[in-house]
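Limitations

Structures in this collection are predictions, not experimental determinations, and the ligand pose is part of the prediction. Treat each record accordingly. The example that follows, with 2-acetamido-2-deoxy-beta-D-glucopyranose as the small molecule, is included so readers can see exactly what is and is not provided: the inputs are given verbatim, and the output is the predicted complex.
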Amino acid sequence: MKLLLSLWLVFVIGIVDGEVDYDYFYLVLQWPGSYCNTGKVTCYDDAWEYRFTLHGMWPQKDGQGVSCPGSPDFHFNEVQSGSNNLLGRMDRWWPSFNAAHKRSNKPFWNTEWKKHGTCTSFTQSEYFEKAISRAEYLNLYLILFKAGIRPGMQTYTSEIKNEIEMTFNLKPRIQCNEDQYGTVQLYEITFCVDKTGTQFLNCTYSAACNREPIVFPRTYYQSTAQQCSYRS
Ligand SMILES: *[C@@H]1O[C@H](CO)[C@@H](O)[C@H](O)[C@H]1NC(C)=O
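Predicted complex:
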């Protein structure tokens, strides 16, 4: 009886807290060009960034995504009032390119918070802050660009993964998809982060993309002049 009661308490407290059991996070960064060129989603006309932007930070358990309670609701006011220019950094690192969102990033943040953030015991500003700080730290586009890995026609096999492993001493997961013509391309680069959302971990994985060679496609709107601005 005592055992049942304490189990029941753990259950109730667990629910009140909103926290679901998970071991670590996938921090998923996407290449905007490969999100927008599949023919499956319509991006707004000038949707591009020289940045791997956040798709999300997803709690994982035993190598699987966990399903989250979906509440509390996303409160824009909370992130808006976040310190260290949280909102500006979210616009920069976690934008939505989906034309259906009518240039608002809020629907994307709302979905990600509900689907993944509500598993954590973080406040909303904590959750977004943690993900953004990790993305800022990685600054992936620049790391790859400096290594000569740039959007274009060239194909890659293990170079992208190797460069990341060399730079950060971390194993990422590389995800690929196909553009509208069936060309296999770099889509997402995922890092593993511990439960607290602060320490990177090596991802243990069976390779997510096993369809090399892949291209790192230009974003449709990308011009040569703008590409040059990263040269030092
Ligand atoms: C990840 O793996 C590399 C190579 O095996 C190792 O040197 C590094 O310390 C590991 N990093 C973490 C955070 O465990």
